Structures
1.
Amino acid sequence: MSVGPKVTAKVSMESLFRIFTVPEAPDSTLGRIEQHLSENLEDFLSSHIVAQERPLYEIEQDFGLSQIPEQPEFVSDHTEKLLQTLVAQSVHTASPRFIGHMTSALPYFLLPLAKLMVGLNQNLVKIETSKAFTPLERQVLGMMHHLVYGENDAFYQRWMHNADHSLGAFCSGGTVANITALWVARNNLLAPSDSFAGVAAEGLPAGLSYYGYSRLVVLVSERGHYSLSKAADVLGIGRKNIVAVPTDENNRIQIDALRDIAREVTESGGRVMAIVGIAGTTETGHIDPLDEMAAIAQSFEAHFHVDAAWGGATLMSDTHRALLRGIELADSVTIDAHKQMYVPMGAGMVLFKDPALVNAIEHHAEYVIRRGSKDLGSHTMEGSRPGMAMLVYSALHVMGRKGYELLINTSIEKAKFFADLIDRQADFEVVTQPELCLLTYRYIPASLKRRLRAASPEQIAQVTPSLNVLTKYIQKTQRENGRSFVSRTKLTPAQYHREPTLVFRSVLANPLTTEAMLRDIIEEQRDIAEGAPGLLQRVMDAATEAGL
Amino acid sequence: MSVGPKVTAKVSMESLFRIFTVPEAPDSTLGRIEQHLSENLEDFLSSHIVAQERPLYEIEQDFGLSQIPEQPEFVSDHTEKLLQTLVAQSVHTASPRFIGHMTSALPYFLLPLAKLMVGLNQNLVKIETSKAFTPLERQVLGMMHHLVYGENDAFYQRWMHNADHSLGAFCSGGTVANITALWVARNNLLAPSDSFAGVAAEGLPAGLSYYGYSRLVVLVSERGHYSLSKAADVLGIGRKNIVAVPTDENNRIQIDALRDIAREVTESGGRVMAIVGIAGTTETGHIDPLDEMAAIAQSFEAHFHVDAAWGGATLMSDTHRALLRGIELADSVTIDAHKQMYVPMGAGMVLFKDPALVNAIEHHAEYVIRRGSKDLGSHTMEGSRPGMAMLVYSALHVMGRKGYELLINTSIEKAKFFADLIDRQADFEVVTQPELCLLTYRYIPASLKRRLRAASPEQIAQVTPSLNVLTKYIQKTQRENGRSFVSRTKLTPAQYHREPTLVFRSVLANPLTTEAMLRDIIEEQRDIAEGAPGLLQRVMDAATEAGL
């Protein structure tokens, strides 16, 4: 595409003025460029193909210069270059055959709204740079709080727009949300007293010493998200003090083990600071027994946090919300709107049952977030932030609770369909059944499938490494073929005596994924496996050697 | 606007399918809505008026419901509502008369690119969901690293795309950037040794105890951004251990005081973990003597961080970059692209001189950011993140270094013009002169202006409270009038014997702000003051009482 005469772009205050001035849409140069971009984006998004495989080192050549270019570039030239080097080499996360991660398709109406949001360029840290966006964000947090806790109208009338309290914090994502929750938990546990200014002021070593704890401990199942150990590192608690509690055969935390470990920690002078339940583990999609965990948290006077970054949206389904029963007992809950709420990347939230809880992390300054102001920045870890809450607001309104319910229900049904489909194959097996719309599975030679289930731990240990090599090969080859994408992870399945097992991981959130596509994905994986006789032979050799 | 027949929106899988399917642009319903939105946004952005004042409690009525709506809404209806309740009530941060904060105008070409970025919905935590966006982000960090440190080509060839190292971390904003820098500093100081697993694993109390420090201390001038005490809280160091070093009459850190305090901390068993220099204080825009601070940091073996969130872009001006001399000696530097780099909200960066420094915060998981992968997520505090780096990339290319240079130079010249203009008024005075494009000033009755400069500390203390009341009144009234906006802050100016003094704060970054507009702003402030004879009388009474 060529726009305007090709002369060299020049630096002048006049040309700079122009780029900061409202263009005369839509027949202006920028109008035409935008049209061209939109068409290209639509082509890209409707091509239904996972990114064309080009080796990363080749792509890196296009991004190799380390100096900021001296001279300006025409927008039209720059856009062409972007389409070729970047857009064509990005990942079609919206493709219905991209079923490997929690990033999925977006409803299209969010794109013009996102442009509006960016163009308004509000800064949510303070009212002075956000005005109506501040009550909007508070309302979104209120609605999500209501979804989780279901307090009455009087509660929300009192707290939703209250300057000194907050029903939650909007964050760039689930990691910041989880860190914020544990930060609040830590500061509330080691709170100020008559003779101690509190951990926020005095620091963690002084806090432990004042309260007489040898260490703070966070208990979470071994399926907990890595952001929790990151939080323990950041907050000074230490990664070792995130104690991984064993899970049962359904990847749910073992309640007895949780209680025993909490008791041991306490008896040895440590303090259980928080217990974290997971509502939708990243690897298998399972939900911890939240109500039982809440009871244990209460008995140890520990903060109960639920990481529902991915699974939280399930609360909008009347059919499935009981899976998360007990979540309303949590002191704090993380939900990512950019996961199962179909909002663009950058929309995490943490909700607090008690609106006064955030006072533990309150902060003020002279020029912004002054005391008594309604500035959102006084209760967030981040400072300047964009108005992403608007996209959550729009998605909630345009789709409605019932729209979300339908999306959630359909996703779970699709995952169950896929699990059945896999189980009916002679040469595939489901490793973890879907509770929400996530399942794991693998390819396994037909002759081995049944025998492995009955094998001894030693036999499984002998065969699994070669199966893992095969699984990894299939997953990488399928990704490189570029027609579809499933991810992979390493589990320790109970049915395989906890032997570290590589599996395919599939997330069925995209409403455009059809059953035919799922059949194709299985077919392709089988073809890849059968096209690698050497790897198959290694599996069969290992089986023979193990006496299977 | 009415789009399509007004029937009730219904929930059906078919209607949901439609919103996830590529619309047939541009004559589709969504195409028309987008056109309407664009026109409205352009109207809004070109109206050059600061947000219409409507009391916040009234706006809150529009955002009062706490329940997620059950039924879906038509996009067209929803959009109309958004334009009325949200867009019309947001803040015109791009207005050339909005000179009160660091949020300014955006170049228009970034808006269609932002829509493209949102539509691609990449997740930068891992290659699998970002592909070419990962090398692009690494290149942007490389270019910014080069801007600060100017290493040679071989250095960038070796490190820019290196899997196990990182020249920096892209963040949602300067606060996360500052926290990340101090997190790296803390973890490197309390690093693993033969008999200690390091602070990341063991926690801060164990780290202090192993290394034998009574406390960690961060030294920064009293003008330091509030995000630094937030960082000290989050990281478990404690807000009390951010020690504010006095500043000189130009709001720069006093080097002797810095050295003395560092020595006292060390002698009393504490450890100076980091010294933070500021390149553009939020309140006055001044730059610390970075080279001298670097020398002190080195002598105390402390991490030297420079918070150049706002001022860092000055490095692109050959005329002014010497103001930041010594920044190349910093171990880490924060720069926000959404401040003086004219990129939309949500684009912070922290750069590390030594690409191995980030290993102190490295983390991995089984399903993403595996060891040896080039996944950006292994070295960031955040997890899932959008592809904002693309907008920085585009801005750097379309404007070029020379374009930025011109913007920076013009802003600083404009600030100097404004300062001169103010000083020429009989009834205004500059409180802090601009070093970059930020200055502070206030209205002061002409008869008092000269006399106050020669007044005794006691006299100043007697008069200042009434002047502060007047300043606050003028600033609030001007904001409420809605034609223009300056912010306000509280300083302790040397010329007024450190008496807490409210001032107007003005940031002249918007290239569309004209000298005529600045004259208007002054005129309006004068009119407001003269329209408040009661407040003026209180000032004069206080002066009389003080014998002035």
2.
Amino acid sequence: MKVSARNLIPGKIKSITNGMVSSEVVIEIAPGVAITSVITKHSVEDMGLKEGEAVKAMVKASSVMLVTD
Amino acid sequence: MKVSARNLIPGKIKSITNGMVSSEVVIEIAPGVAITSVITKHSVEDMGLKEGEAVKAMVKASSVMLVTD
Amino acid sequence: MKVSARNLIPGKIKSITNGMVSSEVVIEIAPGVAITSVITKHSVEDMGLKEGEAVKAMVKASSVMLVTD
Amino acid sequence: MKVSARNLIPGKIKSITNGMVSSEVVIEIAPGVAITSVITKHSVEDMGLKEGEAVKAMVKASSVMLVTD
Amino acid sequence: MKVSARNLIPGKIKSITNGMVSSEVVIEIAPGVAITSVITKHSVEDMGLKEGEAVKAMVKASSVMLVTD
Amino acid sequence: MKVSARNLIPGKIKSITNGMVSSEVVIEIAPGVAITSVITKHSVEDMGLKEGEAVKAMVKASSVMLVTD
């Protein structure tokens, strides 16, 4: 399977917080470095996501902004 | 300055490709690991972005999807 | 600090509605004109956002659509 | 016609820059205050957008971030 | 009314799940084919959305990714 | 491979328009019904996309808005 989204960052699920519709999933991509994702609770359930599981964070290039000091 | 976007990943600009409206900026966040961003060429010019410069990639949590094998 | 997002609109927080994961924050940008934002509740807490506070709404240009009558 | 996008900000087209695929459209929403939009060139053509024309900038609430000083 | 978003897919509301801030609305676009949308609960209320109602799913072209096997 | 994005709509590539940074890819999902995607030209090249090829359009639920008459 190939995906056009250019950013796929591997990590491990650190925490899952479920709301009624949305869930916040925090992925540790390096010691002390985390990426936060908000997806539907239905996706968390359908994918069977669990803390400690290996996942990739996927981001479309047009959703990435840049910041300088 | 504080920003609600939960993901700020530090890196260094590896390449900039300018189109007429959009620019693709590739940021190296670890050896061999890159994040691609598409922003306006006007932002590249206004920020004075250059290859080798330190930047942060910024992503809103609701733009992050998850993938498992 | 410089940001590639081209739209930064100053206003004042009119209301905050917290869900379990997401929060809706309404910002008044002119008398009777408001912008609605949905961010994570964690961002609301980390930024210490409060009604009446001055904030800027930030939007990436590629997230802006146009409508005509 | 009703739209779920919560943000509809009226303005006037100040400039249009066409690329091969994308176009940057700048909308003046108040004297000296502008919103930048990137849409497809096909949309600019199909809508027949022209400088000086009245339009509304439309933004989904989940695309709005917040910034404080 | 004309909209720059290039994707407008007609369907019928199959289900609405309300959270405190966000709502998940599932739209059947063909027998057995559904599109899921997450919008604010305020939009669901303001539009008076109900199961069985005819709606269009609207997506900006820059939010569409591609996948191949 | 499992993806959190809830919308995967199968179709066939009808046309590809390449800019310098972005490409517009139109996917026919039913006779006379098309979905337009804007992705990077690099993704078009890396995936080797060609007219007539079978692909799926992928959209995150939070990128889907609703419209009623």
